[in-house]
Model the fold of this input.
Amino acid sequence: MRFYSLLKHKPSAHRGIALVEVLIAAALFALGLLAIVHLQIQTLRYDEGAFMRNQAVLLAGDIFDRMRANPATATAANNFATTSSITAANCINTNCTPTQMATFDLSQWAQNIQTYLPAGSATIINIGNNTYTVAITWQEVRGQNDKTATTAALTESFQVSAKVS
Done:
């Protein structure tokens, strides 16, 4: 008899309270998932920015290596800007003079700046004593502006100086 009496229970005033607890837990879980998704999107956005900065560092190192390999490149690079047009002979399959190779190096480097960096541009300045400063700028997209619903582009830059000798 005792088992039968345990199965029979009286209706309580707390009916449905477990359902409310489950709904609150589900809402908190969904909010946590939304926060994780937002964090992942921000991580991807900043990862792209880090990739662009890494490209700028590699491209600066590339031109310094070219200048060290061919001193004529360093001479031709003085006050050079990637916005200026360069006509260069193709020195990949032909023998070129050091001056032609310097023009080819600068042309290739300028093309790489514009290929690997969005709206990329660069300048090279001789600051004296065989020391050159390379300044590289590009546009970096960092999401949408909530007020105008347009994508904001920020101008990023990287500048490094090195002695070439």
